[in-house]
Write a structure and sequence with these properties.
Blueprint lengths: L4 H13 L1 H7 L4 H10 L17 H12 L3 H19 L2 H8 L7 E14 L2 E11 L7 E8 L8 E7 L4 E3 L13 E11 L3 E3 H6 L4 H4 L10 H4 L5 H19 L3 E2 L3 E2 L4 H34 L5 H29 L10 H11 L7 H12 L10
Parallel strand pairs: 1-3
Antiparallel strand pairs: 1-2, 2-6, 3-4, 4-7, 5-6, 8-9
Length: 385
């Protein structure tokens, strides 16, 4: 299958037209997901063996950025469902057959932070509890859950567990500040059995030593430590939103008057603040794009990808996300009181950027500290991805 950036770009006007309806419905429309399937973009990271494109992660990441030009929620849900094809491909062969054997178009949502403990039983684990923030769960056939998987010795290593959506209750609790259209609801499990073959150790994902690397030896992505590329999955939505805001605000300022008397465009304060916002957002995008290109070149070269490579990517994308937040905040300040109106096009951008800034993939402490440890010669502490 050939995945092209042009297919994603053709969808931008369609998702943009539905953006407000998507936010109001608190979920991506079925029509949008159907178009993702028809275009093939949801299979970008799926292995060729199951009919996927087996594309580079840079192609997938660029698609996320492009879709966010039209609708942030639609891009976010695409990023989640599309990127999870990578996790599925890392699992045991039998698990991949369970998902794609009868339905090559199947996708998975997730709730990856390990909030609950699996009880060991013969052949696997039984899992109960609530798993929040499952973006796009209404459109998924499966979900991937982070679970502390207790073993006979009492250890509880985190495993990602694959569960059919048919065995899960979806709790409609997604009433939030931003990314309202992602439908990131809570999943509820009541004593669900998860067979061992439908699990993968988080440690193996973080080190790039999963079963899938042996099943698909011609797919370099499956040998990549998860933390090395995951910063290029969801964060591009934030960066694309910032570019939209940067294009929008100067146009509105050109025709505005301060207290009805002075052209705002003639104010040096406005000029200075606008330029600073542009520098912050442009630099942030440069960091994202440079690190993404360098990472793909390293992966495709066949050279060893280290944990430190991943730590640096997470540090730098987190730093760039901080620049984005500052730049968008400056633009919102320049926009003035009009942004308080729900009809103002800048308001949802500001809300979405503020919401994305709370995600673990860009949080400063989670992403700065590991690299700082490495700089000091301290051993890594493997966290969640």
């Amino acid at each position: 299958m050939n995945i092209s950036i042009e297919r994603a770009r053709a969808l931008v006007p369609l998702v943009a037209e539905r953006a407000r309806a998507t936010e109001a419905a608190r979920r991506v429309p079925v029509e949008t997901v159907a178009e993702y399937h028809r275009s093939g973009i949801l299979r970008a990271l799926q292995p060729r063996r199951f009919g996927g494109a087996q594309a580079g992660f840079d192609v997938f990441s660029q698609i996320v950025e492009i879709l966010a030009e039209g609708c942030s929620a639609s891009a976010w849900v695409y990023a989640v469902l599309g990127e999870h094809q990578w996790i599925l491909a890392c699992m045991q062969e039998r698990a991949q057959e369970d998902v794609w054997g009868s339905d090559p178009n199947a996708v998975a949502s997730s709730s990856l932070a390990p909030r609950n403990t699996g009880v060991p039983v013969d052949g696997g684990w039984r899992v109960s509890g609530k798993f929040p923030f499952s973006s796009g769960c209404d459109h998924a056939q499966w979900t991937i859950l982070g679970v502390r998987a207790e073993d006979a010795a009492g250890n509880k290593p985190t495993r990602y567990m694959l569960v059919p959506m048919a065995e899960i209750e979806i709790l409609d609790d997604w009433h939030v500040l931003g990314l309202r259209g992602t439908g990131s609801k809570t999943l509820v499990l009541n004593d669900v059995f998860v067979p061992a073959h439908r699990t993968v150790l988080l440690k193996d994902l973080l080190e790039g030593t999963t079963p899938g690397a042996l099943i698909h030896p011609d797919y370099p992505l499956l040998r990549a430590p998860r933390g090395f590329l995951v910063p290029f999955s969801l964060p591009p939505v934030m960066f694309s939103l910032a570019r939209r805001a940067l294009a929008m605000v100067p146009i509105s300022l050109r025709s505005r008057l301060s207290r009805g008397t002075r052209d705002l465009a003639e104010s040096e304060v406005v000029q200075m603040q606008l330029s600073e916002a542009g520098a912050e957002i442009d630099l942030a995008c440069l960091i994202l794009h440079t690190r993404r290109a360098e990472s793909m070149a390293l992966l495709e070269s066949g050279q060893l990808v280290t944990l430190e490579n991943g730590m640096r990517n997470r540090r730098d994308v987190s730093f760039a996300a901080e620049l984005v937040s500052k730049g968008v905040a400056r633009l919102a300040e320049l926009a003035g009181t009009r942004i308080v109106h729900d009809s103002d096009p800048l308001q949802p951008i500001l809300r979405d950027v503020q919401t994305i800034a709370t995600h673990a993939v860009v949080l400063r402490p989670l992403n700065y500290v590991p690299y700082g440890r490495a700089m000091l010669g301290l051993p890594p502490v493997l966290g969640e991805a």
